[in-house]
Write a structure and sequence with these properties.
The chain is mainly alpha-helical. It has one domain. It has two helices and no strands. α1 packs antiparallel against α2. It starts with a helix and ends in a 22-residue tail after the last helix.
Length: about 60
């Protein structure tokens, strides 16, 4: 499942919660809106940094 589909599924779950939990209806609708906006927002790039301790995989400490 791609990111957009996962966000749409989560929005649907929030809408179901809004019906099932009338006391917190507004909260669940707001959450559903957030997930829908996230589903349609362009994906931003992710940068992952990995730091190896000295002498791992032949790296020498300086």
């Amino acid at each position: 499942m791609d990111r957009k589909a996962a966000c749409l599924v989560q929005a649907a779950v929030c809408r179901e919660q809004a019906v099932a939990d009338p006391l917190n209806h507004d909260y669940w609708v707001d959450e559903a809106i957030k997930w829908l906006e996230l589903a349609h927002a362009p994906a931003s790039p992710v940068v992952v940094t990995i730091e190896f301790p000295p002498n791992v995989r032949g790296l020498a400490a300086e």
